[in-house]
Design a protein that fits this description.
The structure holds three protein chains of three kinds. Chain A has nine helices and ten strands. Chain A is an alpha/beta fold. Chain A has two domains: 163 residues, P-loop containing nucleotide triphosphate hydrolases (Rossmann fold, 3-Layer(aba) Sandwich), CATH 3.40.50; 76 residues, no CATH class. In chain A, the strands form two sheets. A six-stranded mixed sheet of chain A has the order 6-7-8-3-9-10, with helices on both faces. In chain A, strands 2-1-4-5 form a four-stranded antiparallel sheet, covered by helices on one side. By secondary structure, chain B is mainly alpha-helical. In chain B, helix 1 runs antiparallel to helix 13, helix 2 crosses helix 11 and helix 12 crosses helix 13. In chain B, 48% of the residues are buried. Classes of the chains: A alpha/beta, B mainly alpha, C mainly alpha. Chains B and C meet through helix 6, helix 12 and helix 15 of B and helix 6, helix 12 and helix 16 of C.
């Protein structure tokens, strides 16, 4: 039984069948990649996982609980963190404040009126946030305006914000989209480090083969809204159906 | 039945004004992406164009009328408009009587220039600023325009009559075959409604059937792409701003006989017109027009005694109530497009 | 001190000192001198500084932190005034119950209006709040006349019950608002050489409440709650995907700022016990927006500064009339004088609102961060020159949340 279980999910937009009978199981402490050509339904699937879309039929269970119909903040509080295609960070705040917010969210829940505590005196939270920044090699940037950082650093910061929550599942939406080769490699390195350092479950939506094969333990190939095949990277590479449907196209 | 007809008619003139202002607001918002809080002030300036023209036409000198005497028995001093002495009593008098419709000729160039100056001098610099900044700067401009008018025209409403031919009322009910004296309707309100309908029709035809309009509509849908096609969309948008200003100005000019222009009429109408835009759907021109008339008529209905007896004060707040309900249930308004001004 | 970081504690002390010494500081010119007209140290005006300071501090908690631009906050000011006057009519002339009721009623109003309006953001939110405020204004003028006394405004009268007090004084007048016997209107005038300073009870009540409000706002700014509010402003999507529900945060901010407005409204009534619907008009809402922006939205001290600035110049500019102007520009040659007079005339006396509108535009165009940013820029320039001398600037190990300089959507 995986930590994330997607069963028989269908989603139609008007006449378009975006997802057709998707089944997926993500095992705890593994990296599961979902790949497929453009329009295969990857983003739709992801949006169903985080509460932005509700599937027409089927179930999405996380840790034994349904996520369907829940709001994004509720799903996050269940233990799912999300990294966006373009990094979503708090641009007007400092790097440290960016990381502090998820710390507070984990400690205090979705809403709390801590209006008379002082952020500067929340030692535990500050330590935790600083530790995370150090882990990410960003400690020296703690007072920087987040918006003024390079794109690579923003990505790094967003990862830090997700990881500091110690999520049970980290969802990554094309984490290398639009990046240069060098940036992509850096991101792969970063993810590898994260994977090596702690027990974490990741689901990556990606179309860059290079990223997927260097990270994933298991891969699901989506085509036209349905899973074509699910297997280990080695087997996927040689799979004739996949070559035909996906690799053949991009080669 | 007559009551319903009467209230519908009564709502039409106010609805026309809402529709015209909302149309301009939507044009500006749709094309330039700017929230113009000064649009009500443009309506007000339009109304004062009518006042100005009427004053210019009645510029007078004093003559002594030997045939009449004042209460002391001295010959009476009478103001003699230059126009009358130049063109004679009949022609000059007619021109003076028709000052409000004639003011249209004055309003159009004034508003076009004002709109052009506003866009080039101020609004242009706010395209990339947050909506809050746009609201604030145009709010400031609205205060400035309002205070300037107050400085030169005073704080009191200035009655500006319609041509005498059109000041009376007529029996609309009898015209459509109902009992006489049930539905009496002033001529000028009918004129205003027809005038508004014509302007609205003209704006839509302009957008629908000219190349210029086509480009503007395309720009409203997707500004960047149109810009990429090598079309100078900015210049067209400037012209569009001028047109929107002219529409608001004309709406004000012709409204002068109905309301007696005062310096704060712009603000009063702006708040309601914004509500109209929101109800109609941000960015939807037909929505703005539809909602304008709808809310005007609704307001008129809610001021019926039968309804006020059940819900006292409802006429004061009906428009706001409708807006709140619409915003909460249909966030895009009646005919709003997807993706306009959403989170 | 009081759970504040050193920098904030210093700021608070400065503000306390300024507020307490205001009757002296604001009267720098001897009573008989020509410049005396620029003095601001009389109770009426200083009370306005403090009261509108409270209003702006509260507005800033909503607008400065979360970026939600409300155009309806005057409604809460009006509600606060009406509540306070009713308390003076029914219970007693003591200001405490009046202020408590003002805050309670306005917080309930804010809860209802905020709950609905905050379902939308951006311009929709602004228009919703505007719609609510206009609705309140219209109702106050029409059907609610039994409560608001319509156009005349709500006033005290000799036959009010005042259960815990007296309906009329021994000499048949309406009793004065007071704090346990200290009348708001009481004051002590101290003459010192050519100077005269007036210390009034009313002003000190307002000033102390303003200081309390300022301190509370400071705590909110530095708290995790305040951090979340700033996060709402910069990226709501990220906030929601970080497991935080933005709605209750914005609602809490809205209600708090509504309570501040209610307190300000109550104080206005406590200083001068009448309440009129015009206090709720949207131009009044616009004024508090202007105060906040002019001072610097999102900064702690900015709104107080903005409120003081506007109320001061409103007072000064409104007082200047033609004869004053002729005095000033009399030295100019006649032709020049007439031109200058013609220009200046637009902006003074009743033309103050024109100045206000222009100021509004200039600030938004050139100084979106308000006076506080302007001050920082100037200070930065000066320091930049001095710094070339080699002052490294000590690294501060303590954590200071930054201030968001710009007005956001």
């Amino acid at each position: 039984m995986g930590i994330l279980e997607v069963k028989g999910v269908n989603k139609r937009f008007g006449g378009l069948q975006a997802l057709g009978d998707v089944n997926l199981s993500v095992t705890e402490n593994s990296v599961h990649a979902i790949i497929g050509p453009n329009g295969a339904g990857k983003s739709t699937l992801l949006n169903c996982l985080v509460g932005k879309l509700i599937p027409d039929t089927g179930s999405v269970m996380f840790n034994g609980q349904s996520v369907l119909g829940r709001k994004p903040h509720e799903i996050n509080q269940m233990g799912i963190s999300r990294v966006f295609q373009t990094p979503e960070i708090f641009g007007d705040l400092t790097v440290l404040e960016n990381v502090l917010i998820p710390c507070f969210a984990r400690r205090d829940g979705a809403f709390s009126m801590h209006a008379f505590e002082t952020v500067g005196q929340e030692r535990d939270m500050l330590d935790e946030a600083m530790q995370m920044l150090e882990d990410m090699n960003m400690a020296d940037k703690r007072d920087m305006h987040a918006a003024s950082m390079s794109r690579g650093d923003k990505r790094r910061l967003e990862m830090a914000m997700c990881l500091v929550q110690q999520p049970r599942l980290l969802l990554l939406d094309e984490p290398t989209a639009g990046m240069s080769r060098a940036d992509t490699n850096n991101t792969i390195e970063l993810l590898k480090q994260i994977k090596g350092k702690r027990d974490i479950t990741m689901a990556i939506i990606e179309h860059d083969m290079h990223v997927v094969f260097s990270l994933a333990d298991r891969i699901t190939v989506l085509a036209q809204g349905s899973p074509l095949v699910e297997d280990t990277p080695e087997n996927i590479k040689g799979h004739p159906k996949v070559r035909e449907a996906y690799l053949g196209e991009s080669a | 039945m007559d009551a319903i007809l009467l209230q519908t008619l009564n709502g039409l003139d106010k609805g026309s004004a809402y529709a015209l202002i909302a149309l301009g607001l939507t044009l500006i918002f749709g094309t330039l992406g700017v929230v113009n809080f000064a649009h009500g002030a443009l309506f007000m300036v339009g109304a004062f164009c009518a006042v100005t023209v009427s004053r210019l036409l009645t510029l007078s000198y004093t003559v002594i009328d030997e045939t009449r005497t004042d209460f002391l028995g001295n010959p009476m001093k009478v103001d003699m408009p230059y126009l009358k002495s130049w063109l004679g009593e009949t022609v000059g008098g007619t021109i003076i009587d028709w000052s409000v419709p004639l003011a249209i000729l004055f309003t159009i160039p004034v508003m076009l220039v004002l709109g052009y100056a506003m866009e080039r001098g101020l609004i242009k610099h706010f395209y990339k600023r947050p909506h809050a900044d746009q609201i604030l700067v145009t709010f400031g401009l609205a205060i400035v325009l309002q205070e300037l008018i107050k400085h030169y025209f005073g704080a009191n409403p200035i009655p500006t009559p319609a041509p005498p031919m059109l000041t009376g009322s007529f029996d609309f009910g009898a015209l459509v075959g109902m009992d006489p004296n049930q539905v009496i309707y002033p001529y000028w309100r009918l004129v205003y409604f027809l005038f508004s309908a014509a302007i609205i029709g003209a704006v839509f035809a302009f957008l629908q059937f000219t190349t210029f309009g086509m480009v503007v509509r395309a720009g409203m849908a997707d500004r960047e792409t149109v810009g990429l096609l090598g079309i100078n969309i900015d210049r067209r948008f400037t012209i569009m701003f001028g047109i929107a200003a002219a529409v608001a100005g004309l709406a004000g000019t012709m409204y002068a006989p109905i309301i007696s222009p005062n310096y704060h009429m712009g603000m009063d109408f702006l708040v309601l017109s914004f509500v109209v835009v929101v109800v109609g759907g941000m960015g939807s021109l037909p929505g703005a027009v539809l909602a304008g008339f709808l809310l005007g008529v609704l307001e008129s209905f809610s001021s019926m005694n039968e309804i006020k007896n059940i819900l006292p004060g409802i006429d004061q707040i009906i428009i706001y109530l409708v807006a709140i309900v619409i915003l909460l249930t249909r966030p895009r308004g009646l005919m709003g497009r997807k993706g306009v001004m959403e989170e | 001190m009081l759970g504040l970081e050193k920098k904030d504690a210093t700021l608070l002390l400065v503000v306390i000192a300024l507020a307490l010494a205001a009757p002296i500081l604001l009267n720098p010119f001897p009573t008989e001198s020509a410049m005396a007209q620029f003095n601001a140290g009389y109770p009426d005006l200083m009370q306005k500084f403090a009261i509108y300071g409270i209003f702006a501090i509260g507005f800033n908690i909503l607008f400065g932190l979360t970026g939600y631009l409300s155009f309806g906050h005057a409604a809460f000011l009006g509600v606060g005034s009406y509540s306070a006057v009713w308390m003076f009519k029914l219970l007693s002339m003591n200001v405490i119950p009046a202020l408590v009721l003002a805050v309670l009623v306005s917080s309930l109003f804010a809860l209802v209006i905020g709950y609905i309006s905050l379902r939308r953001s951006g311009i929709y939110f602004s228009i919703l709040t505007l719609a609510f405020a206009q609705m309140s204004f219209n109702l106050a003028y029409s059907v609610l006349t039994p409560i608001t006394n319509g156009e005349t405004g709500l006033q005290l009268s000799l036959d009010d019950p005042r259960i815990l007090g007296i309906s009329q004084t021994a000499d048949g007048g309406i009793p004065l608002t007071s704090l346990f016997g200290l009348a708001m209107r009481d004051s002590v005038a101290v003459k010192l050489g050519g100077w005269s300073f007036e210390f009034s009870v009313g002003y000190y009540v307002c000033a102390i409440l303003m200081l309390v409000c300022f301190y509370l706002a400071m705590r909110i700014f530095r708290s995790p709650f305040g951090l979340m509010l700033r996060a709402v402003k910069t990226n709501q999507t990220r906030l929601n995907y970080t497991g935080l529900n933005s709605r209750p945060y914005t609602l809490a901010a809205f209600v708090i700022s509504g309570m501040y407005a209610g307190l300000a409204g109550g104080l206005l009534a406590a200083m001068d016990p009448l309440a009129g619907a015009e206090r709720m008009q949207w131009t009044a809402s616009g004024e508090v927006v202007l105060m906040t922006i002019l001072g610097g939205a999102g900064t702690l001290f900015g709104p107080v500064l903005g409120a003081g600035f506007i109320k001061y110049f409103e007072n000064i500019f409104s007082k200047i009339n033609d004869s004053v102007l002729q005095n000033w520009f009399g030295f100019l040659p006649d032709g020049v004088e007439n031109v200058v007079l013609w220009v200046v005339e637009h902006f003074v006396g009743p033309g103050w609102h024109l100045t206000l509108g222009l100021l509004f535009m200039l600030v938004v165009i050139f100084l979106p961060g308000g006076l506080m940013e302007g001050g920082q820029r100037i200070a930065g320039l000066l320091r930049g020159k001095r710094k070339s001398g080699g002052d490294g600037g000590g690294d501060d190990p303590e954590y200071h949340p930054g201030q968001t300089p710009h007005v956001a959507e």
